[in-house]
Each structure stands twice: as structure tokens, then as C-alpha cells.
Amino acid sequence: MVDDNELGKLRDAAIPAPGENARARTFEAAMRAYDQENISAVTQGSVGRLRLTERARKLWSEIMQKKLIAAPALAGLVALPIAGYATFHMLREQPSPFGGDEKITETLADKPATLKPLAKQAPGDQAADEPAVTTAPVKDKKADADVESRGATDALVAPASPPNSESAQAGGAARQTATERGVLAEPAPPAPTGEFALDGATGAASTSRVARMPAAESKLMIQQPATAPADQIMPQQENRDRVQDFKTNPVHAALEDPVSTFSIDVDTASYSFVRSSLKQGYLPQADTVRVEEMINYFPYDWKGPDSASTPFNSTVSVMPTPWNAHTKLMHVAIKGFDIKPTERPKANLVFLIDVSGSMDEPDKLPLLKSAFRLLVSKLKADDTISIVTYAGDARTVLMPTKVAEKDKILNAIDNLQPGGSTAGEAGIREAYKLAQQSFIKDGVNRVMLATDGDFNVGQSDDDDLKRLIESERRTGVFLSVFGFGRGNLNDEMMQTIAQNGNGTAAYIDTLAEAEKVLVEDASSTLFTIAKDVKIQVEFNPDKVSEYRLIGYETRALNREDFNNDRVDAGDIGSGHSVTAIYEITPKGSGGEQIDPLRYGQATVNNGGVANADEYAFVKIRYKLPNEDVSKLITTPVTSTNELASFDQASTDQRFSIAVAAFGQKLRDEDATAKFGYDKIMEIATAARGADPFGYRSEFLSLVRLASALGGNR
Fold this sequence. Notes:
Helix content is 30%, strand content 18%. The chain has helices at 4-12, 20-38, 52-65, 75-92, 144-150, 154-157, 165-168, 174-181, 269-280, 291-295, 365-378, 406-414, 424-437, 462-473, 491-500, 511-520, 522-526, 651-666, 677-686, 695-710; strands at 105-106, 222-223, 252-253, 259-263, 312-321, 324-336, 347-354, 384-390, 394-402, 444-451, 478-484, 505-508, 528-539, 544-550, 570-573, 577-586, 616-623, 631-637.
């Protein structure tokens, strides 16, 4: 029997105010009902259905006739859930705009991983509210030899174990599932267009290596939720990406400050991050553009050393500047020795994988797992792999295991699941502990951290992490960092620990990028041939009035750091190409930006300047991987290094300069303010050259996107 007092309390209780989510869902349901009544029409031959309002009344009538409401006092309490159930029932029976329960899948290759709607839309690009496209089998456009070399990865591209029921329904059923739960579905990334279009979609052919694989090798598909309607109210996610602020390198007067010193940088994260931004439809934030990382993203055919005894070779050229008739460019190209596969040392790798709750997005943990499967395919049978995960705490998922037990390793990767907070410090300590356990003398010992960069348990301060990594690298175990996803990426932390861990930092936004970093560039990513590489350039004030280093702002060193072997610097991997470009103002050219010192000339009028015919003197200091004492390489730069015209420069030199101009343009630097995207496109198109993997073709597309988004400013 119902207590009258209890009924009285319920009758007098205030009805709670509806929340924002409830209002949004109600508004959406109302709009759908309005559209259905006022726009939609039943096509000929279709089965007649009751209109939404009639169905709602009928459902309410059935409920009342069955006398589900036993007491009038309870009517107000049950009204809201009944109304919600009615809305659910109506929406559930609506026919899918895609037809039935058809699943919609989309490959990650050449697709930007997007977490929020487009801010802008380039002309001709696919609209943000278009449905995801089911890709057709793609054709292999590479040489037969390349196809054969990839044949062994067939089994690795497809997951070893079937996906769970939840992930299997993440494609075409995602819209219905989201509606049934009464929540708004997050928008799926927009399908790429133009030169980024998936094979089978409208536009130019895809340039991705993965997209050009045979059908049997392109099985890896990550199912995405269908794109939400344009009129759907979407929750706005807070963008918590963290990037390091820095100022563009200034112009220096050679008479006052003739020496420039910096650490080498072979990271590529910035280029991938910029590409992801442009594909999402907006110009990247200036501080996400590190020009040197954009230049060094591309492979170049610089002249390398003849033997492993000299780990790299440097080539210096001077040429006219395309964007300034009064200046010249001093182009410094470094090429690392490429270790032959048969000579590669054994590898001891620890996969340190972030499985925290923030990784539960399609472009994070699922993409990460696919990427590491590709890496496993590249390793030799006697290499060793361990796996450590961290969320609320650190956990060893796989003890040191030989790659010969490939199935065991792949199963461990496939079974990773996200959840919890982010105890990054504990994970790093556990990973280093495992690396020491299976340490290989004279081999490659490396921790490979894969994360969205969110450390919120333990040591989360960048300086604390830096000290931790510095103490561990002295043991001979290096660390590389691979970033995934947007909206929560801690790029600043990634750069800090990668630079101090004698490793590289890369940002992986597609499966194609994973293949580039972990398969195509595996040698340079894993096998270090020189560490603590520093460059110091002294300019001759009798020939050069001013100079400016393009990029490397976050890699600047003090002049005295060059000869101090205790100061950490960048590393070069097997076959790495590294490029540095200075813009210099020859003395008397009329392009000077700094007024001369009234009394400055007296400091050099002391009987003449030594080596007066030189533009500059380039010094490179490095250490071999297992040594602590540096060695020195020097190169004088004279008129013999000079090219009469920009067109005389090699294809690779001209293309690298086009990339440098693009990076400066994206940063809105003064030097390229009057140099349009059309000029950059002209140089890059003429210097595209051999492009087996489509990297340079993709670059041209990014320039076009930036031009459309930026109005060719």
C-alpha cells in the first residue's frame, strides 16, 4: 500500500529544471519531427507510415489505456520519462538516411584525424556534413619490387583477433546507437577531397603508400561513426593542445654578432600537425609551425659519406633568395650514412603505450595499435619487444619477447583497451626498467612512447620529466615520442622529453604517416649513427652584413655550448637528411635592415681580416653513439660554393627552399610577407622531381589549401 505521506512529498516536490543536454535533445527531436511533417513525403510504392504526431498520440493512448499510471499523484513524475520514451520510440523507427543497417567504413590512409568541425571550408572541398564514403579497392601504382617487399606485411595489417562487438558496430550503426542512448553523436572527420581524396572518391588519385597497396594489404579499416547532420547541435570540446611559444629568429648584424649556434633537429611532428590542421579546414597556429621540421620531413638526395667511419657528410651552397633580390641563401645539407639491413645492430625496443581514457578516440589508441603492428613487421626475428602501458598506473603487458614470436606480440597489442587517468611518470620508469633488463650491448636500446601527451598523475611538470629522461639516457637507453590525436596533445612535453632522451618526436595522424615514420623511415627512426650534433656558423663581416637562421628557434644554443660535451644536442639516424638554411645579406647589397655602428668599423680595421674571401665558416660537432667525446668537421664557404642563379640549384635544394618559404608564410613572417602562395607553388611544382611516395604532391595540395584559407595573402 502506498504511503500518503510519501505521495504528498512527491506531489509537492519541485520539478527539476531540464539540463542543457536534455534541451538539445528535445530541440533536435522537435526539428526532426518538423522536417518530417513539413518536408518529407512518402515516395510512391513506399509502405505508409503514421506521421510522427499521430504515432506519439497513439503511443500515449496505448499507455493510458493499459492504466500504467495507477495513481494521479504519480502522473507528473512519470510524464517526463514517458515523453522521453516516446521520443526514443519515434526516432528509433525512423528509416536510416543511409539505408538499413549498412555499415560505413573509411580507411585512415590520407584521412585527417579530426576531433571538431571545420572552422573554414576551402572552395571545392567536401562539405563537413557529407556522409562517410565506403572506399573501393585501390590499385597498386608502385614498382613490382616494392609490392613484393610489402607482401610480408599482409597478415600484420589485418588484426590478429576479431574486433569486439562494440567496435564492430562503430560504423553504420553508430548514429542509431547514439540516438538510442539519447546523446548527440560526435562528428566524424570530414572525408578528404582533391589530392587527399580516398581512392574511389571524386578527385585526384591518393598519394598514400597505404592507399596504393594491393587490396590484400589494405585490409586495415577503422570504422568511424557516420557524419552528423549539419543542423545537429554539437557539443564544443575544449582544445587543450599545448605547444611551446617561441619568437621567430631575428636578423643579426654580422659585425656585432657573427656566430650562430644551434642543435640539429630531425623531428617531423610539426609538418604532420600542420597538415592535420589544413585538412581540417583552418590555418595552423603560428607556434605549431617549426620551419626546420617541415623542411626535414622530406627525404633529399644529399651526398652522403663514403664509409661508416664518418657518420655524415655536409654540403654547403650559396644562391639568390627567391623572395628577396637583395639577399642570398646559404643552404647547409647533411646526409647520414645509411646502414645496410644486414649490418643493422639488434634492437631492444620497449613500447610504452598510453591507454588512459583520453586515448579512447579513433585517431588515438586504435590508430596507435595499427601503427605498432606495422613496426613489428619491419623488425628482425632476433629483435626484442616489450610492452608497458599506463593509465591510472603502469602495467607490464608483455615481458621482453623475441619478434620471432610475432603472434604473441600482436595479440598483446590488439588486446589493449583505454581507461583511467594518465600516470606517465610511472610508465616511463617501468619502461626504462624493462629496457635495462634486456639491454643489448652495442645494440639499439630504445623506449618508444606513444601518447596524446596528457600526463596528469605523478611528475607532470615538463622540467621534472626532463630531468628524469636526462638521468636515464646516460645508461644508453634512448627515447622517442609519437603523438596521436588532437584536442589534448601536449606537443611541448613531447618535444622536451624527445630532445632530452636522445630521440625523435613525430606526430602520427593517419595510417599512411605511421607507415612513413615506422616502416619507410624505420632505419633513421631507430638506428642512431651520431648523437649530440651541433652546428656553429661564423660569418665574415667583410662579406656578410646581416644573417638570419630560418627555423631552429627551439634548438638555439649559447656560443660556448658548442665545445661543451656535457651539453645535449640532437641526433642523426641512419640515412637521415638534415637541412639548415640561412638568409644572408651580402655587404653593400643595399638590403641591410640594421643601421651600421658609428664606431664599429674600428674593430676590424687592424691590418685586414683573415680569410676575407669567405662568406662563412661552418663547424659541425658530433659524438658517435657509444662515445662521450665529440669530433669536429669544418667547411669554409667561399665563392666556389656560390650559384649564379636560383635555377642552377638542384631539384632537392629548390624544393627544400619552397618548403622553407611555406613554413615562414604560415608563421606570417615579415620576410615572406610579399611572397605569395602562388610563388611557392611555382617553385615547388618545378622542383617536385622524383616523388615515389607522393610526399611532394601532397605538399602542393597543402599549399593550395593554405592559399584558399588564407586568401593568398
